[in-house]
Amino acid sequence: MPKKKKISIFSIFMLILTTLLSISMVFALNYLWDYLEAYEKQNPARIAENYAQKLLEGDFSQIIETSGFQANEFNDEKMLSKYISNLANGNISSIKVFKTGNDGKTLKYGLFCGEKEILSFSLSPDGKKDKFGLEGWKIATEKISGKKQAKIIAPKGAKVYIGNTAVSDKYLKENQHSISAYSVLLNQELAPQFSTYEISGLLNEPEISAALENGEKCKVSKQDDSFLAYPEVSKEFENEAKEVVQTAAIKYATYTTQDISFDELSPYLFKESSFYKKIKDFKNEWQPEHTFEYNNVSITNIVKYDETHFTADISFKYTLKRKYRENSYDVNYSMAFIKSDGQWKLVCIL
What confidence tens digit (pLDDT) does each residue in 207-248 have? Predict the structure, then answer.
């Protein structure tokens, strides 16, 4: 029978030692790996790069969380994305992050598009240490708040929108808008009525639209610091308005030269206005026997306020012809009309 080999104590010791060293090495390598990973996570340069990378990927959650950004119906994440895109001139992919300085323990960084800094943020110790004794960092983004405002004036009852969001009545202010031509109305409730909305704190230049209650779209224009939303003038309405304006203007001109009487002019006038009384009491000068003609008619600046009010300008050459003489006058009227009992009536001439 062969003899069994005895395992020496030394061999056992070396085996145990090798095993322990291997285990220790594994633990050491794991520890080192965890430490390096933790160190990398706490590396401010890496944190700043990750901050910028999220932005490049369209993730604005960190910016929203660290800037105190308050979303509302007009300033949501989509609007924030557009705001930053506008700051970067539409080229977000070119944004780079650079360290801009430090203030004691606080490190300052900026997001740059070329040489233009579009956003700044800072890193400061958060006072919390991990199992390796490494201190973390907290991010603070510069406060993002809207600086743009919108004062919107629209016909009363019209639906007003910023983007796709309806402007609610909580933004409604006391009526601050009127049309001076209608100030002659004895009952101001008959004048065009408007709603004025004021919205502040917008990140972006607002995209405003409006429509009347009947669905008719409004044309939005900027005037001084306000957006005016008046109904669009269709070709059909333009043709109707031009006919109304020219008829009333020529009737008025011929009245001033005694070619027609007030009774003949009266059907074209709106009686419930101080202008009506003024015209009725008008003392037009006697004119020698003559004929008249008009030409070069131009009707411009037709503004529709709602279904029952519009204004327009008219110019024409008005000529009185006598036996041996003729006089020509360049006539310019700014006229306001109201629809009463289905008929357009002249309210005022400025």
Answer: 999 999 888 999 999 988 899 999 999 999 999 999 999 999
Which tokens in the block code for residue 266?
């009266």
CB 198 within 8 Å of CB 151 = yes
The answer as to whether 1 is a domain residue is no
Q: Tokens for 234, please give them.
A: 């269709």
| Domain identity same for 128 and 154 | no
Q: Give the pLDDT confidence of 128-159 residue by residue, as tens digits.
A: 766 555 677 888 888 888 888 999 999 999 99
- Domain membership of residue 216 as a residue range: 148-231
Asked if residue 223 and residue 127 are part of one domain, the reply reads no
| 34 and 125 belong to one structural domain | yes
343 and 288 within one domain: yes
Answer with the one of 198, 231, 264 that is the final residue of a domain: 231
Domain ends where: 119, 141, 163? 141
Q: In terms of DSSP H, where are the helices of 88-153?
A: none
**Residue found by looking up tokens 């629809």 in the block:** 339
Domain CATH number, residue 332: 3.10.450.50
Q: Is 90 helix (H, G, I), strand (E, B) or coil?
A: coil
For residue 254, give the amino acid letter. Answer: T
Give the span between the Cα atoms of 91 and 84, in whole angstroms.
10
Distance of CA 229 to the CA centre of its chain: 13
Same domain, 152 and 88: no
pLDDT for the residue 38: 47
This prediction's pTM = 0.76
User: What three-state secondary structure class fits 192?
Assistant: coil
Tell me if 179 sits within 8 A of 233, measured CB to CB.
no
Sequence-ordered list of residues with C-beta below 8 angstroms from that of 3, at least 6 positions apart, any chain: none
- Distance of alpha carbon 146 from alpha carbon 341, whole angstroms: 48
Better pLDDT: 97 or 335:
335
Q: How far apart are CA 260 and CA 287, in angstroms?
A: 12
Residues 6 or more apart whose CB falls under 8 angstroms from that of 350 comprise 180, 181, 333, 334, 335, 336
Instruction: Return the structure tokens found at 208.
Output: 């405003």
Q: Let me know if 190 is exposed, middle or buried by CB neighbors in 10 A (0-12, 13-18, 19+).
A: middle
